[in-house]
Specification:
The protein is mostly helical. It is built from 5 helices and no strands.
Length: 131
């Protein structure tokens, strides 16, 4: 137990960022209705499988980058990422963050030309100020 507490203490913010990345990926898949033709129960199982697979892949990448790719570390990290991912997704789903995220994506996709144009204008203004 002490090893797990030490591990979470040392890797807490990395776990959080990795879990949030997974939620964003799953949120985009759900927003795009990638699996809308499938039955709801099958979609749920598929999203769970994707979540598990992403947790495993992200864990391998992170642990390989930190030169800590051992079986014990991998199992602890992958389990923690998956658990944090599920907890954060439950909060995302129940605290109306889902609607906020969907509204944000709707706004971006429906106004992308205007947003790109505004960014270009801002870049041009910044260049002119420097000169």
């Amino acid at each position: 137990m002490a090893e797990l507490i030490t591990f979470l203490k040392d890797n807490g913010w990395q776990l959080t960022l990795i879990a949030i990345a997974g939620i964003i990926i799953l949120g985009i898949l759900k927003y795009a209705n990638v699996f809308k033709k499938l039955d709801k129960k099958i979609r749920h199982i598929l999203y769970m499988a994707i979540s598990i697979a992403l947790s495993l892949i992200r864990s391998v990448i992170y642990l390989a980058c930190t030169h800590n790719l051992e079986l014990d570390s991998f199992l602890a990290f992958a389990s923690a990422v998956f658990a944090l991912n599920q907890a954060a997704y439950a909060l995302y789903d129940t605290l109306t963050l889902k609607e906020l995220f969907n509204n944000l994506l709707d706004f971006i996709f429906h106004n992308k030309e205007e947003i790109v144009e505004e960014v270009k204008e801002q870049i041009e203004e910044d260049k002119n100020k420097k000169e």
